[in-house]
Specification:
There is one protein chain. The chain is an all-alpha fold. It has a single domain, classed as Serine Threonine Protein Phosphatase 5, Tetratricopeptide repeat (Alpha Horseshoe). Helix content is 62%, strand content 0%. The protein has 9 helices and no strands. Helix 1 crosses helix 3. It comes from Caballeronia novacaledonica. This is Membrane protein. It holds the Pfam family DUF924. InterPro entries: DUF924 (IPR010323), TPR-like_helical_dom_sf (IPR011990).
């Protein structure tokens, strides 16, 4: 195990399971559930750390790939749980994307300990509202499938890309971010409900 900040290791162990646990390297159901109790628990346990990260802190984590992934998880995933239905849920997306891009450019994504660790390197591309990032997300998740056989996230990456291709943004964020909603977006939301 790499010697990283214990707080970064705590984020990784919580999200991916400890390296010696049965959960390690497997898909975890809580990643995709929206539950207030889980959000509260995550806020109680990691809220102060998330606040520090969102304020631009924890820069020392950026010098080590696994710690960088822990920072990406904080900024891209925990923010969505801890600040659900508020603009702050998306406030750190640009930094998360920059960190993820660096991991991909250096090839450190390919050295992650499991396919699912790699997948969460790629999530900031899927969450970005540019078509370039969406195309990169699809490419990365396709490569993940080719390399590892894990394809459970590829369909979602393609769906996100289709929404950005159509609207240039995610309609389900409009109300949260105070953006005007088009009739086409309203109709899509009524049918799909967002992500």
């Amino acid at each position: 195990m790499t010697n990283i900040d214990p707080r970064a290791q705590a984020v990784l162990d919580f999200w991916f399971g400890a390296p010696d646990s049965a959960e390690f390297g497997t898909e975890r159901k809580f990643w995709w559930k929206k539950k207030r109790a889980f959000d509260r628990m995550l806020t109680e346990r990691f809220g102060a750390l998330l606040d520090e990260a969102q304020a631009g802190g924890l820069q020392s984590w950026e010098s080590e790939p696994l710690a960088t992934l822990a920072l990406v998880v904080l900024l891209d995933q925990f923010s969505r749980n801890c600040h659900r239905h508020t603009p702050r849920a998306f406030a750190s997306d640009a930094r998360a994307l920059a960190l993820a891009r660096k991991l991909v450019e250096t090839g450190d994504d390919l050295r992650m300990p499991s396919a699912f660790h790699r997948a969460f390197v790629y999530m900031p591309f899927e969450h970005d509202e540019t078509i370039e990032s969406q195309r990169e997300a699809v490419r990365l998740f396709e490569r993940l499938k080719d390399d590892t056989g894990v394809d459970s996230m590829l369909g979602y990456a393609r769906e996100h890309a289709e929404v950005i291709e159509r609207f240039g943004r995610f309609p389900h964020r409009n109300r949260i971010l105070g953006r005007a909603m088009s009739a086409d977006e309203e109709a899509w939301l009524a049918q799909h409900g967002g992500f």
